[in-house]
Write a structure and sequence with these properties.
heterodimer, A: mainly alpha, B: alpha/beta, Rossmann fold, 5-stranded parallel beta sheet, 3-stranded mixed beta sheet, about 35% helix
């Protein structure tokens, strides 16, 4: 399994409040991991989208 | 006095009492169902909801079909959440135009399902006009592949940017399969949102919905691109068939409430993006915001608290549609 996806799955599970929820989300993540590849790929593709390049206009205060 | 043989029930957002599995559209209305319904949070009175033999909240289907019918598609507003059937904008339209008007509105229907329903229904009803009611916030439904226990057919853009349709899986007819497929779809959606710093499940606040936030815009770029292609295909289809297509966009709940607390939160953002796409394809569109806001007051509102149009709202919606269609000379034929 891609370590990047595994890392994301763990981080995602850790955002859940209770231990039970954390466990469920972790195991679901492992189960669905082979199908989550495109999510990570899309995330990389969109990291420099046209809108995000407009950052200077959107966040004039920063 | 209510008829004792008709069941009374109270429903909340997301209840699927009136819905069943549909092999092409994911879900559709149950035919010939009739209930007296109290819509929680909208209207404390009981409202009679009756579906015809095709599962639509409309008059019984007759064999006689006039030429040049008007087909209305949309979500829960068109279906008529919270109001009597006689007050629906579709009924108002029929009275105002004298044309045969069909209501194909259903709760939680996405723009993608509306497009598929248009393809299916227009072949049977041969309409001259198609009206699509769209609550701008609901555009996000094209990203949701699992809704209220039902999987949906959905469109996506492949690597070359071509619009593709993912049809319903044959397994979706079984509830247990829908739950398994839905579990994956739900996880994938939440995972995508997590990666974009969005948490709709645990921290949802309608006044700070990420769809209105400027700093979350990149996440929704894909959604608007997808909507762009779907609307382009919808317009192409209607042009080929000689059907006039018109969109009616309601004001959203947030526009009636408090002002945006920040310049970086824009409640009109989904509307603006949607209208830009509609303009691009020269699809007729009426922004109902102004007409609705003028007529709205605390004592005499045009919407319920949750943003659904009430009787008055439906009447204005129909009036604006008729005015626009007359201006375009679509009602002369």
């Amino acid at each position: 399994m891609n370590s990047r996806i595994l890392n994301d799955i763990i981080q995602f599970a850790m955002t859940k409040k209770s231990f039970t929820e954390k466990s469920i989300y972790f195991f679901k993540g492992l189960l669905f991991a082979p199908f989550l590849d495109e999510v990570t790929r899309r995330d990389v593709d969109e990291s420099v989208s046209a809108t995000s390049q407009a950052g200077d206009d959107i966040y004039p205060l920063f | 006095m209510k008829n004792q043989s008709i069941k009374q029930l109270t429903i909340r957002s997301g209840d699927v009492v009136f819905y069943q599995y549909h092999p092409i559209l994911g879900f559709w209305g149950i035919p010939d169902i009739e209930r007296d319904v109290c819509f929680k949070g909208m209207n404390n009175n009981y409202v009679r909801v009756r579906h015809n033999s095709e599962g639509n909240r409309d008059k019984p289907i007759t064999k006689e079909r006039k030429e040049g019918a008007i087909l209305c598609f949309g979500g829960s507003h068109t279906w008529g959440a919270g109001i009597d059937q006689e007050s629906l904008y579709t009924e108002n339209l029929e009275k105002m135009t004298g044309k045969q008007v069909y209501n194909f509105g259903h709760c939680s229907l996405g723009l993608d399902q509306i497009f598929l329903a248009i393809l299916e229904k227009s072949a049977r009803y041969n309409p001259s006009i198609i009206i699509v009611e769209q609550y701008p916030w609901a555009i996000h439904r094209i990203l949701n592949t699992y809704v209220n226990g039902y999987t949906r057919p959905y469109f996506y853009l492949d690597e070359s940017g071509t619009l593709r349709l993912q049809k319903m899986s044959a397994f979706s007819r079984f509830r247990i399969c829908r739950r398994i497929i839905g579990s994956f779809f739900t996880y994938r959606k939440e995972f995508r949102e997590f990666k974009a710093g969005i948490n709709l499940k645990d921290e949802y606040d309608p006044w700070a919905d990420p769809i209105f936030l400027y700093w979350k815009m990149p996440f929704y770029d894909y959604m608007y691109n997808l909507a762009d292609r779907i609307l382009g295909s919808m317009q192409d289809f209607c042009r080929q068939k000689g059907i006039q297509l018109i969109f009616g966009l309601e004001p959203i709940m947030q526009q009636f409430g408090q002002k945006s607390p920040s310049a970086l939160i824009d409640y009109e953002f989904p509307r603006k993006r949607l209208m830009k796409i509609l303009e691009k394809y020269r699809i007729a569109c009426i922004d109902m915001s102004e007409a609705m806001m003028i007529e709205h007051s605390v004592d005499d509102p045009v919407v319920f608290n949750d943003g659904h149009m009430n009787e008055k709202g439906h009447h204005i919606f129909a009036q604006e549609l008729v005015r626009s269609m007359k201006e375009r000379q679509w009602l002369n034929a």
